[in-house]
Design goal:
The chain is of the alpha+beta class and about 525 residues long. The protein is about 35% helix and about 10% strand. Strands 1-2-3-4-6-5 form a six-stranded antiparallel sheet. About 50% of the residues are buried. The protein binds adenosine-5'-triphosphate. The site of adenosine-5'-triphosphate has 20 residues, from β2 and β4.
């Protein structure tokens, strides 16, 4: 199809070609047919058509209409939608050209500096085991100057989101999720992997009532490894701050001191949050929170929620012991300590509700996922119902803006062999990519995205069809074919990383941050003593 045939859609079609989302042949055919029927159509109309017939997702169309055609294909991943953003970067729902499964792809800010080689080693470690509560870190790569990390996409709502919207959990429900997380951590710790950032926003509860730990791998990237720190200083600082509510005292004193025992402390904070609806130290500045983790005890749980069993409170206290040695010998011991509090979930009252029922879509058949027959053989464990508004606290919350829409509601579900998480074996891991955008960016057909409303597209009245704000007008000179075009961000970040051990400088900076934190703590304690 020649450029002159494209009319007012010319710039859009060029950008679409540059994006690498669709093969040129099929694209030209679809566009040609559309323009034959609508010769005067402008770009938004064409975009809407492509979304309607499933060639583009609404997110992709919106990005391209806004002139952001780069970065939609990162290595094997085709970005389909934005899920949310965290302290390290933006997270996208993506499909992989390697296996057609869905992934959560975290894209780090441009020019983040970290050592991809060591991150790849992390990825390989996750290939050695599987657990229903562990969402494995499956890929890391660089494309067009952007670094990306990938995990299988899981459906559900985070504990943070659930509790923010529906309040604290019933003790048995809180214990159930803590057991599931502890089981996942047990297996990870046995494989020499700690999490380092366990917190309510990193625990996803699926419609099968299985807790799944998100963001595995990131904590290790924050830690010095062979003298090289993996994540740039700014990302490290942001991530540490965002994790402060559940950070162990020892990781606060020394940010690279992340261990299995630290995961226990963080899980203690998560359990405290589940039982009370508040993090242990909700008040004050970042420094005051750091101090509190070092020196203070949180408000006693039974002062806030009298019906929490004393034994469960004792478990939280032990998990949150200030010194690692006082905690459990391992998460397996913790699982045993929690099991007596699972009770009979049929009898439980959730936030504002009566008994819970087994969810119709529960894959566990009412049994506690992950525990099999091992625990409470006598107890008839029925999982809390998402669909029971008066139930046990595990309720769906379609109104939550911070929640992702379960992919089942958006797109055809990928084959899930582990209660929502595609099995590691089925990942068919993409060769860790180190390609530049556009170069190896294979042209693929984007899987149709169902059910997402079309974004408000720019009005069609504009003479160019170009939305506002517009990019600068295209130069009058003939454009080179996209294949030959120089991509603006195609600088090989990997080459830099390979030649320069940036982590060392970064490690030094983390050391300085640690020293500064220690000094702040000392000054604070001194000032407090003087005031007394
Ligand atoms: N594997 C995953 N499957 C589905 N959603 C995910 C997955 N990983 C992350 N998310 C979602 O992506 C969003 C952003 O995640 P991200 O980890 O960046 O932020 P966060 O945990 O909220 O904050 P922080 O960066 O401070 O930890 C969150 O809503 C999170 O639930």
């Amino acid at each position: 199809m020649v450029t002159s045939d494209l009319g007012a859609c010319e710039w859009f079609v060029w950008d679409l070609r540059r994006s690498g989302l669709i093969d040129r042949g099929p694209l030209d055919q679809i566009v040609g047919e559309f323009l034959k029927r609508n010769p005067r159509a402008e770009a938004p109309a064409l975009a809407e058509f492509l979304v309607d017939q499933g060639t583009l997702t609404a997110f992709q169309a919106e990005r391209i209409l806004n002139g952001k055609s780069q970065g939609l294909v990162l290595g094997p991943y085709v970005l389909l939608d934005a899920i949310g953003s965290g302290s390290m970067g933006q997270v996208y729902k993506a499909s992989s050209k390697n296996d057609s499964n869905f992934y959560a792809v975290k894209v780090l800010p441009r020019r983040s500096m970290w050592n991809v080689r060591l991150a790849r080693r992390q990825v390989r470690s996750f290939a050695t085991f599987e657990h229903p509560a562990v969402v494995p870190f499956v890929d890391v790569g660089t494309a067009g100057g952007l670094h990306y990390l990938a995990w299988p996409l899981v459906e559900g709502n985070t504990l943070e989101s659930l509790i923010q919207h529906h309040g604290k959990l019933a003790p048995a429900t809180a214990a159930l999720y803590a057991v599931q997380v502890a089981q996942g951590l047990t297996v990870a710790h046995q494989n020499n992997l700690f999490h380092g950032l366990v917190k309510p926003s990193n625990v996803m509860i699926g419609s099968d009532n299985q807790a799944r730990i998100l963001d595995f791998g990131i904590g290790s990237l924050l830690v010095e490894n062979e003298g090289e720190s993996l994540v740039d200083t700014m990302s490290t600082a942001n991530t540490l701050t965002s994790g402060l509510d559940c950070a162990s005292p020892e990781s606060i004193m020394e940010p690279t001191n992340r261990t299995p025992a630290g995961d226990q402390y963080s899980l203690g904070c998560v359990l405290y949050y589940s039982l009370t609806g508040h993090v242990p130290f909700p008040e004050g500045s970042a420094v005051e929170k750091m101090m509190a983790h070092q020196t203070k005890e949180p408000t006693p749980i039974r002062e806030l929620v009298p019906n929490v069993p004393a034994g469960l409170v004792a478990v939280v206290q032990r998990l949150m012991a200030k010194t690692p040695e006082e905690r459990y010998s391992g998460c397996d011991e913790l699982v045993e300590a929690l099991e007596p509090f699972l009770g009979d979930l049929n009898q439980l009252n959730g936030p504002g509700g009566s008994g819970a029922r087994t969810p119709p879509n529960s894959q566990s058949g009412g049994r506690m996922p992950g525990l099999g027959n091992r625990s409470n053989p006598g107890a008839k464990i029925t999982l809390p119902s998402r669909s029971n508004p008066g139930g046990s606290g595990m309720r769906s919350n379609p109104a939550s803006s911070s929640m992702i829409v379960p992919p089942s509601a958006q797109t055809p579900q990928p084959p899930a062999s582990r209660g929502g998480v595609p099995s590691r074996a089925s990942f068919n891991l993409p060769a860790v990519s180190d390609e530049t955008e556009g170069g190896a960016a294979a042209r693929s057909h984007t899987p149709p995205e169902l059910g997402r409303p079309m974004p408000k597209l720019p009005t069609r009245g504009a003479t160019t069809g170009r939305p506002e704000p517009m990019r600068p007008a295209r130069p009058a000179k003939p454009m080179p074919p996209p294949e030959l075009e120089e991509l603006p961000d195609a600088e090989p970040a990997w080459a830099e990383e390979a030649s320069e051990p940036r982590g060392k400088g970064n490690a030094g900076t983390i050391g300085l941050i640690a020293v500064a934190i220690v000094l702040m703590v000392i000054v604070y304690i001194g000032a407090t003593l003087l005031m007394k």
